[in-house]
Design brief:
CATH superfamily of one domain: P-loop containing nucleotide triphosphate hydrolases
Radius of gyration: 24 Å
Distance between the termini: 52 Å
Helix content: 25-40%
Largest sheet: 6 strands, mixed
Structural class: alpha/beta
Shape: globular
Bound molecules: adenosine-5'-triphosphate, magnesium ion
Number of strands: 22
Length: 510
């Protein structure tokens, strides 16, 4: 069997960390090879060797019959490798067609002047767009299309570059159920054309849906490669994690409802831009309240309105029965409402902060009188607290002095969650808290949320992952088109909340 690429004994050392230790991997034409492993296992590090970003410390890459000790970005392109990062790299200001030809726009000479051959690139782009099923004009500006379409543009770009190897690093983390389905159909087509795909995801369900083979990494070491047809997904979990995974993190909703007072209420909240309308709900002490719905249904928009990040046109908010006015996010934090936002990579952390500084940011903000960093700073206390949070979430790092920006994707998120856990608030709003987080850490985060609830906090969790809502939330509110379309209790006695009942409330049936 001729491999598209073979990687042998790849080792990658960063100062203080061995990110990969003698890992081997190969890819066949027309297959989807899944890379699996916990946060920090080395998945991104391995694929970045193929795009020419990482220069391996040791190892051999065999591609097209040639042996390389490392690939430069140019080697990578010449060997028809395309990588689609989670933070997509399309240029918003350019059209779809221009994005396909960035850096190699064809020009024609008219009266001695070089003019971009727009007709040609539009025709070519249309061909690739049709192949993938992008129903837009090639002239459409990329800023006017959805995230899932942007990703499709990235795939079209790979096709335009005649890619034989396409790497997808957590491609579905921002996609809805339907968009994920569309991506899988595109992947099927790519496979038929003999393209090999390296696919990284923390959604275990996807292994059976798209995978042909799966390779597991653990702490930078190679564990095993298996045919997907021969395995059960549950068998893979022990290969990835050393810890036990709990199936349920539910509280006792009947007891909570009977005994615990309402801590936090929202009444008839409507956002100025209308993205969330007429929203009312209560959260009790000790309760985890889930928010389900399709992507774009208005859940995050509603939370931003509550938290003071976006203007509301009407609505009241009550904390411990007293009406409060939240002018802005700083104000919310001061009142005891904490929010872990969804888009953590963009808005989540400071590029030039060490882990400990990052974790102390919110606490300092809360302590300070002004909305700045003017509070008295005690480095020693802050470091101690950072140590606590890092340990609690099992964050993989060389120490609290490491820069957050150098952590793996999932571990960056743990740092950000840690900084919100470090502030002592009564109400916690988590928006997609486990996006990009591995199966072991997910379970730990649910445990922490349940622990906080048991300590008397009220917890709100927005999530697009049904299994997570069903294993963690005591009640689930469903959103549809900016409004609440269902409220379901989640326990065996009532059996109200199931994947089916949630889905039915989330999509319009008429
Ligand atoms: N530029 C860098 N400098 C220092 N350490 C790094 C750098 N890039 C990665 N690492 C370290 O290498 C290890 C592997 O990281 P990698 O990003 O490959 O993990 P991953 O498997 O992709 O995890 P995730 O699922 O969280 O994205 C981590 O411990 C990380 O901190
Ligand atoms: Mg990664």
């Amino acid at each position: 069997m001729e491999y598209l690429v073979e990687m042998k004994n790849m080792t990658m050392k960063f100062p203080g960390v061995v990110a990969l230790d003698k890992v081997s991997f190969n890819l066949k034409p027309g297959e989807v090879h899944i890379l699996l492993g916990e946060n920090g296992a080395g998945k991104s590090t391995l694929v970045k060797m193929l795009s020419g970003i990482n220069k391996p410390t040791e190892g051999e890459i065999i591609i097209g019959g040639k042996s390389y000790s490392h690939l430069t970005p140019k080697d990578s392109v010449e060997n028809k490798i395309a990588i689609i990062y989670q933070e997509l790299s399309v240029v918003n200001e350019l059209s779809i067609a221009e994005n396909l030809y960035v850096g190699k726009l064809p020009y024609k000479k008219i009266a001695g002047m070089k003019i971009m051959n727009r007709k040609y690139i539009n025709e070519q782009a249309k061909k690739y767009m049709d192949e993938i099923g992008i129903k837009r004009s090639p002239n459409t500006l990329v800023q006017d299309i959805s995230i899932s379409e942007k990703q499709q543009v990235e795939i079209a770009k790979a096709l335009a570059a005649d890619a034989k190897i396409i790497i997808m690093d957590e491609p579905t983390s921002s996609l809805s159920i339907e968009e994920t389905e569309e991506l899988f159909q595109i992947i099927e087509k790519l496979k038929k054309n003999g393209i090999g795909i390296i696919y990284i995801s923390h959604k275990l369900k996807e292994i059976k849906q798209v995978g042909d083979r799966v390779t597991v990494l653990k702490d930078g070491a190679y564990v095993e490669t298996r045919d997907v047809a021969d395995i059960e997904v549950d068998d893979l979990i022990p290969m990835m994690v050393g810890r036990k995974i709990k199936a349920s993190h539910l509280g006792n909703e009947a007891e909570i409802e009977k005994n615990n007072e309402v801590i936090f209420s929202v009444k008839n909240l409507t956002r100025k831009d209308g993205t969330a309308r007429n929203i009312s709900f209560d959260v009790r002490k000790g309760e985890i309240l889930g928010f389900a719905g399709l992507i774009g249904a208005g859940r995050s928009e509603c939370m931003e309105g509550i938290f003071g990040a976006k203007p509301i046109s009407s609505g009241e908010i009550f904390l411990h029965g007293k009406p409060i006015k939240i002018k802005d996010t700083y104000h919310a934090l001061k009142k005891g409402i904490a929010m872990v936002t969804e888009n953590r990579r963009e808005t989540g952390f400071f590029q030039n902060f060490e882990i400990w500084r990052e974790i102390s940011v919110t606490m300092n903000l809360k302590k300070s009188r002004l909305a700045g960093f003017s509070g008295l700073v005690h480095d020693k206390d802050e470091k101690k607290m950072a140590e606590e949070q890092v340990g609690r979430l099992n964050t993989k790092c060389s120490g609290i002095n490491q820069m957050t920006v150098n952590l793996s994707g999932g571990n960056q998120q743990k740092v950000i969650i840690g900084k919100w856990l470090a502030v002592n608030s009564d109400v916690f709003i988590f928006d997609e808290p486990t996006k990009g987080i591995d199966v072991g850490a997910k379970s730990e985060i649910y445990d922490i949320m349940r622990g906080m609830a048991d300590d008397g906090k009220a917890i709100v969790m927005v999530s697009s992952e049904m299994p997570e809502l069903l294993s963690t939330c005591d009640r689930i509110i469903v959103f549809r088109n900016g409004e609440i379309s269902g409220v379901l209790t989640n326990n065996e006695a009532t059996g109200e909340a199931t994947e089916e009942t949630i889905m039915r409330a989330a999509v319009a049936v008429d």
